Amino acid sequence: MIKGYIFDLDGVIVDTAKYHYNAWRRLANTLDFDITEEQNENLKGVSRVESLEYILGIGNLQFSAQKMAEMAEQKNTWYVESISNMDKSELLPGSEELIKEIKNKGLKVSLGSASKNSMRILKATKLIDYFDAVIDGTKTTESKPHPQVFLMGAEALKLKPEECIVFEDSINGIKAANNGGFVSIGVGDQKILHEADIVIPSLEGITIEKLNSLIAQH
Ligand code: B16
Ligand code: MG
Questions:
Q1: Domain that holds residue 92
Q2: CATH of the domain at 101
Q3: Which terminus of the chain faces fewer neighbouring Cβ atoms within 10 Å, N or C?
């Protein structure tokens, strides 16, 4: 029986994946190359430092550790600027409704995000009080597809992985959920997220009852 719901942040609760992409593109452009949407799929759910390494690999470029730290900082400054006026209008359809329903039914909610900006976003969108646990990039040492972020979430909720659903928009996040033994729900494109147990186009109209029936059919 499902007792806990673990939500990825960027691309599941809030529409911030586009801002990460824009900021990385801006950085790549300063180095005279570009990144495609397809390449961006591999950046979703990936930590800031590992994203930078991947991007520099695309440009076939190498820099000192100090220069790389400066570039990661620059990207984050641009990203934070783009979310500085964030409010509930950035919530993806259905996310707040589902989180509220889960809490109203006395079930548990955790965040499972790679982002170090997650508290800022949860506060700006006024969702923070619904969360029983917040596990993010400030607490983890391993990146998705390692399951650490979700295992820490389940532990904080005092639940086993098989008692929890993970919602994810990234290939790496789905792999992380599967690696940890969670029920994985891909939120987005079936073609991209085909490794998920179940794929839904968005959280719009998704209720606990619908989730239970999708799991029963699986
Ligand atoms: P930050 P998620 C991830 O968040 C993003 O998908 C990814 O694009 C980003 O690089 C990563 O967080 C780190 O974010 O630079 O804010 O620490 O999808 O795991 O919620
Ligand atoms: Mg995501």
A1: 4-15+87-217
A2: 3.40.50.1000
A3: N
